[in-house]
Design a protein that fits this description.
6-stranded parallel β-sheet, globular, 12% strand, 7-stranded mixed β-sheet
Length: 599
């Protein structure tokens, strides 16, 4: 009977740096324009779809967001928690490279207490570095590619029933003698309608199944601001040179020639569930225009019939006009946009592949969106991009002024600038051909990045310099541009005086602490060096979030976080019966397993 409740696979999501609560690390603004903190506690959405696939096939799967738990509670002991677990296997995501230190350390802890329990790695970064990763004693399997639900299912069946691993697609594994085997990466599905991504039904069910809300919370402020997301595709049609999710990177890492899309109908099904859970904004990941006009028309036509109340946040990968925004405005009552321009220099945008159009077309896009009632447009600029000089980085703020002048200081314009940090994405064009794109790589291997994350400031964590800027200049241009943008926002009443003064104070103090850390690093005596760094810890922690923009600037207004009790109850009842069905399936599987003749 206990076998019915045994946890077969436990996913552990690691903090960026395992000892972030002890070490003095000035992460700076590397996470200021994403929902999570510098701990990068937001786990990749793909692990929820893997979990759902396994559960539908008779496995019990739990997600434990170690990063969130450690961030929320300074007394939370991940080592003690891992020691108490007894799964068939551990799964550790290494999707984004900034998690490499924490992921490796969690894997070591798993092996320390459970030497015979296999550790499975997955994610884009794990896929890229699979040969290096499998050489370590704490890694037993690496599941490669962007759609690993089926390979992980086959692997878990092999572990449960003692079957061979040699026929499992996308798998890198070890023989008993420790030698590595690389199975072909052949599981590359052409569409991803077979599962929801993220799978919110699994997440809600798991909260009740394991009687623990905090294990699956995606980021620190989520309960106060429960934004949701829909993944529309795996892969991309765009070839941005610094993006690890570009067309080139997906081909190089995942053997994917073209994106795999979720159908409009499957997206609508997820939106129905999200709307029953609450009225927070829904972030539609990727530009849906990648899939073609027919796909766009079908999605908005179906969406219009739903009469949703949630605000839709739409990504734009290139310019758009009246026809597109009219469709959006006709389908939903509220929408906002996200545009990553990276730079106002048209030639750099063209070379980099991001918004490769004129500034005039950018401005026409903004004007058209406002015309059709767009509530907010987030526009992101970056420092540290290919061929960008210090002057060009800072002059992006002059273009921000131009936009505010052109649109009469419209408060719907939300302007941001942030560094390309901490790492160049492995597999992107700039990582593979650094000289062509003007980069000098300072980190090459997985362990290079692991050790970089332990450096005491983000300047020294940066994995690159460019032929136009040193690491010092990248840091200085980021802070100088942030100060100018902060002043510009205050001038146009986009932020209040309190926010302006806070950002001014934080940026100037961050610049000062970066210099102080540099001086400490010159100390030859390591014991004295560590002592000096420890004395800076409290000041550093106060500046590791919201350094270059206000904490609420990225948020969209929410009238009601969660739905009423009747709507939530209907969802919970439906998911309860789903769990009962899965419980019955597990009972049958275990029964037939016991009936199998012993060989």
């Amino acid at each position: 009977m206990l076998q019915l409740f045994k946890k077969d696979l436990i996913f552990l999501h690691a903090p960026s740096v395992y000892d972030f609560r002890k070490d003095t690390i000035m992460f700076g603004p590397i996470s200021d324009v994403v929902p999570s903190s510098p701990t990068f506690e937001m786990y990749p959405v793909g692990i929820t779809s893997i979990a759902e696939t396994l559960e539908q096939s008779g496995f019990n799967v739990q997600i434990i967001n170690m990063a969130y738990r450690m961030l929320r509670d300074e007394h939370y002991d991940p080592e003690k928690v891992i020691a108490s677990l007894k799964p068939l296997a551990f799964g550790i995501d290494l999707h984004w490279l900034p998690h490499v230190h924490g992921s490796i350390e969690l894997a070591k802890i798993c092996k320390k207490y459970h030497p015979d329990v296999p550790v499975i790695f997955g994610g884009l970064s794990a896929s890229y570095y699979h040969e290096e990763l499998i050489s370590f004693p704490f890694a037993d399997f690496v599941v490669r590619g962007d759609s690993t639900e089926e390979p992980v299912l086959q692997l878990m069946r092999s572990l449960r029933y003692g079957l061979p691993f040699d026929k499992i697609p996308n798998l890198t594994w070890k023989r008993e003698d420790g030698s590595a085997v690389i199975n072909p990466l052949t599981h590359v599905p052409e569409n991803i309608d077979y599962v929801s991504v993220p799978c919110y039904s699994y997440v809600v069910r798991s909260v009740f199944k394991y009687a623990n809300l905090h294990n699956t919370v995606p980021y620190l402020d989520w309960l106060k601001y429960p934004i949701t997301a829909l993944l529309t595709a795996r892969g991309c049609t765009q070839n941005c040179s610094i993006c690890g999710g570009s067309q080139f990177a997906y081909k190089h890492i995942c053997n994917r020639d073209k994106p795999a899309y979720r159908s409009p109908a499957s997206l609508i099904e997820d939106i129905r569930l999200i709307q029953k859970l609450g009225q927070a904004p829904i972030f539609v990941l990727h530009d849906i225009r990648q899939a073609g006009q027919e796909y766009v028309d079908e999605f908005f036509s179906l969406l219009k019939k739903e009469n949703i109340k949630n605000e839709l946040v739409i990504e734009l990968f290139w310019d758009a006009g009246d026809e597109y925004f009219a469709k959006i405005a006709d389908a939903v009552p509220k929408f906002s946009l996200e545009m990553t321009l990276e730079t106002h220099i048209e030639s750099i945008r063209t070379m980099n592949g991001k918004f490769a159009c004129s500034n005039e077309k950018v401005e026409q896009t903004i004007a058209s969106a406002f015309k059709y009632g767009c509530r907010k447009i987030d526009i992101f600029f970056m420092t540290g991009i290919p061929k960008q000089s210090y002057t060009q980085a800072v002059e992006a703020i002059d273009y921000c002024r131009h936009l505010l002048e052109k649109f009469d200081g419209d408060k719907r314009l939300a302007l941001f600038i942030a560094p390309l940090a901490p790492f160049l994405d492995p597999g992107c064009l700039a990582f593979e051909y650094p000289e062509k794109y003007g980069y000098k790589k300072l980190c090459h291997t997985l362990m290079d990045h692991y050790h970089a994350l332990t450096k005491p400031s983000w300047k020294h964590i940066l994995s690159y310099e460019t032929d136009s800027m040193t690491r010092d200049e990248i840091v200085r241009s980021t802070y100088d541009a942030a100060l100018r943008l902060n002043a510009l926002k205050y001038e146009y009443n986009l932020i209040d005086r309190e926010t302006y003064e806070q950002i001014e104070f934080r940026v100037k103090n961050a610049q000062s602490i970066i210099d102080e850390i540099d001086k400490v690093l010159e100390i030859q005596d390591n014991e004295q060096k560590q002592k000096e760094l420890k004395q800076l810890k409290n000041r550093v922690e106060q500046l590791n979030r919201h350094t270059i923009c206000g904490k609420d600037e990225l948020k969209w207004p929410i009238s009601q976080r969660f739905s009423n009790i009747f709507s939530l109850t209907s969802v919970f009842i439906r998911l309860f019966f789903t769990e009962m069905r899965l419980f019955y399936n597990r009972t049958k599987i275990l029964f037939w397993q016991k009936m199998r003749p012993v060989k």
